[in-house]
Amino acid sequence: MVNVKVEFLGGLDVIFEKQRTYKLNVPSKDDSEVTVGSLIDYIVENMIKNPRDKDVFIENDTIRPGILTLINDTDWELEGEKDYVLEDGDILSFTSTLHGG
């Protein structure tokens, strides 16, 4: 299990009961390391209440284009994306850059 802080910004909080920040205890599967991919699965399975909202956050089994994803203030693409192994105290931010008009 790993303890992380997760932030949903840029309007994403709307699909997470209008709460922007969560402190999560993410369990490991089969005693393996907890990755960002595991965290994303956990978020989709446990935190998005309305099934239609999953498409706002996920597309093709990854974070939807237009959502800036940071791991400890660093673009997740530089950290290995879904393969990054989470550590206690990591902060993950998901910020929508898409705004309705």
From TrEMBL:
C-terminal thiocarboxylation occurs in 2 steps, it is first acyl-adenylated (-COAMP) via the hesA/moeB/thiF part of UBA4, then thiocarboxylated (-COSH) via the rhodanese domain of UBA4. The keyword tRNA processing applies. There is a cross-link at G101 (Glycyl lysine isopeptide (Gly-Lys) (interchain with K-? in acceptor proteins)). Pfam families: Urm1. Keywords: Cytoplasm, Isopeptide bond, tRNA processing, Ubl conjugation pathway. Transmembrane segments: none annotated. The keyword Cytoplasm applies. InterPro entries: Beta-grasp_dom_sf, Mopterin_synth/thiamin_S_b, Urm1. One of its GO terms (cellular component) is cytosol. GO terms for biological process: protein urmylation; tRNA thio-modification; tRNA wobble uridine modification. The modification 1-thioglycine is found at G101. It is found in: Cytoplasm. Pathway: tRNA modification; 5-methoxycarbonylmethyl-2-thiouridine-tRNA biosynthesis. Acts as a sulfur carrier required for 2-thiolation of mcm(5)S(2)U at tRNA wobble positions of cytosolic tRNA(Lys), tRNA(Glu) and tRNA(Gln). Serves as sulfur donor in tRNA 2-thiolation reaction by being thiocarboxylated (-COSH) at its C-terminus by the MOCS3 homolog UBA4. The sulfur is then transferred to tRNA to form 2-thiolation of mcm(5)S(2)U. Prior mcm(5) tRNA modification by the elongator complex is required for 2-thiolation. Also acts as a ubiquitin-like protein (UBL) that is covalently conjugated via an isopeptide bond to lysine residues of target proteins such as AHP1. Belongs to the URM1 family. HAMAP family: Urm1 (MF_03048). PANTHER family: RURM1 PROTEIN. This is Ubiquitin-related modifier 1. It comes from Lachancea nothofagi CBS 11611.
